[in-house]
Amino acid sequence: MALWPEEYEGFRDEARQMADALRGHYGSGASGEAPTDRAGRVRFMREGLAALETTSSAGAGEEIAGVPCRVFRPKLASRGTYVHFHGGAMMLGSPLMNDTANADLCERLGVTVISVDYRLAPEHPFPAGSDDCLAVSRWVLEHEDGPIVLGGESAGGYYAALTLLRIRDDLDAVRQISGVNLVFGVYDLSGTPTSRGARPSDVADLLEDSMFGFVNECYIPGRSLEDARDPAVSPLYADLAGLPPALFTVGSADHLLDDSLFMAVRWQAYGNEAELAVYPGCIHGFTAMPMELAKRANERIDVFLERALSKR
Q1: What's the predicted TM-score (pTM) here?
Q2: How many structural domains comprise the chain?
Q3: Which residue range is the domain that position 198 belongs to?
């Protein structure tokens, strides 16, 4: 079973060079010594991601269901709504990391984009962020017309999957969701082989093996690895029956490779439609990088979103 077209092999060198360049810029020690205490480490990482934030004039800050959001509305009638969840390990980042991309998506596809500024751990551990994502999604289900698609990157992929399951189980409204765009998400907080360092690639990833224990310490404090397999926490262990089509996008050098491999197969095993798109030599966050495989991945995401937004 081929995980990617043979043609993609020709782009491996570019992906490696991009990973090496980014590792040199953002890697350990690149911005000074990181603090070792929890609060200092979180603050240090937040400052690093804040440097990636931009503000698009096309977006507006709105409070939806008591949760701050960034909202983009097309000039003409909207084809539907894309509910977006940003990345950042459930404790970092904001919608502004995706502001330019979400503005472009709104204009390109003619879709309303609502990006949720959910509460962050460790100040607000599980389930605070999940509750915010569900609250906004509930409002969208009740107030927005047309197809609804959920999606996000990294922690955003996690929250998209978790929110979809809660829409099914808590709201009995999963039939209103026409698709879910899951981009290098984490679905097993107890740890997969690749998240623990057993990766089929020697390309330097932006994530590190030690990151995952720290995320759990902040996001689900006091829980053991066995506790982390609770389906309410790790959607890989959930009943996945009756879900809409999903696109899983991930790079083969990503620490979260296994999360997408395992989740996509389980999605299909429960009788749902799933596309698995793996890109050789690509690291975590690669879709935002100026290289050919990122272009191919984003084009495939657009095709998936077009199809989901065409459903009635």
Answers
A1: 0.96
A2: 1
A3: 6-26+39-309
